Amino acid sequence: MTVQLFTRRRFLIGSTLGASALTLAGCDVLEHNEQVGSVIRSAENLTMRAQRLLQGRDARAREFGETEISPSFRVNGTSRPDSEDYAALVENGFADWRLKIDGLVDRPQEFSLADLKTLPSRTQITRHDCVEGWSAIGKWTGVPLGLVLTAAGLKPSAHFALFHCADELEKTLDGSGRYYESIDLIDAFHPQTILAYAMNGKDLTVGHGAPLRLRVERQLGYKQAKYLMRIELVDSLGAFWGGNGGYWEDRGYEWYAGI
Ligand SMILES: Nc1nc2c(c(=O)[nH]1)N[C@H]1C(S)=C(S)[C@@H](COP(=O)(O)O)O[C@H]1N2
Ligand SMILES: [Mo]
Predict the structure, then answer these.
(1) Is 87 helix (H, G, I), strand (E, B) or coil?
(2) Whose CA is nearest to atom 24 of ligand 1?
(3) pLDDT at 42
(4) pLDDT > 90: what percent of the chain?
(5) Is 1 within the bounds of a domain?
């Protein structure tokens, strides 16, 4: 692999919100980020290390052809967030929805759905594998996550992207049943990691996570957070909800759910 010796700061200053940002290989850049390196080296991330050793850290998930798209794709987990706020967003065709990007960034951002649709997009046909034992192949279209993170400008202390969702999968008094997820910056800048607004050529349905969901194709179904509201850049995961980086992780599943 040819490695360009950009420092992250030069990378962020040098790139703009446009096609040029896409051509920069985020992983090459992150290769030289010591903080990311220390996350990879930490003993608790053995699966992640094993997968990356065997397949290379920017290996792609398999992509399929149009004819292989599954005729039906299950809706799993939340099928419609049960809140007045979400109902109001649906009512208005998500015109009032905004994706916030904040936390450890230089320039907090807010994107409408229309904003996201004007950015460069990626379409990929991939297999979704749920830990419960079912799979389905779908076509996803969306904005590379790395592009919007670059727009926001990551501070050197940012190690993880934390995804806040609109739904509470479990109703609790303290709100601890809210769905959330997180990934590290290597997955965040992986070329197949996208914020998807379309599935099989149509706007996402409510069941599949409208208006926006994460696709992080090297990992299991529960990482594919639906109903995205906010992406927060954080240095560690311990302070959020159960402290394990995700709704299912707080209930015993692996944080790095490699497939
Ligand atoms: N916000 C949110 N995201 C979620 C879930 C959920 O309940 N809420 N379920 C997860 C699980 S376990 C799976 S398998 C997939 C299901 O996505 P689908 O409904 O589009 O099949 O979404 C994942 N993302
Ligand atoms: Mo799942």
Answers:
(1) helix
(2) 225
(3) 59
(4) 75
(5) no
Whole-number Å distance, alpha carbon 131 to ligand 2 midpoint, is 5
Indicate if ligand 1 lies below 6 Å from the C-beta of 121: no
Q: Cβ–Cβ contacts within 10 Å for residue 98, how many?
A: 14
Separation between Cα atoms, residue 107 and residue 127, nearest integer Å: 34
pLDDT band at 50 (very low <50, low <70, confident <90, very high): confident
Q: What's the domain range around 140?
A: 66-251
Angle at 182 between CA 181 and CA 184, to 5 degrees: 165
Structure tokens of 33? 């980020």
Which residues share a beta bridge with 234?
160
Evaluate: CB of 219 within 6 angstroms of ligand 1. no
Residue 78 lies in a domain: yes
Decide whether any atom of ligand 1 lies within 6 Å of the 223 Cβ: no
161 in any annotated domain: yes
Residue that has been written with the tokens 């065709």 in this structure: 93
Q: Are residues 109 and 189 in the same domain?
A: yes
CATH code assigned at 115 = 3.90.420.10
Quick one: 133 and 220 in the same domain? yes
Number of separate domains in the chain:
2
> Ligand 2 centroid vs 216 CA: distance in angstroms?
13
- 213 with 118, same domain: the answer is yes
Cβ neighbors of 249 (< 8 A, separation 6 or more) are: 242, 255
Residue 206 Cβ < 6 Å to ligand 1:
no
Q: Which pTM value belongs to this model?
A: 0.84
| Same domain flag for 140 and 105 | yes
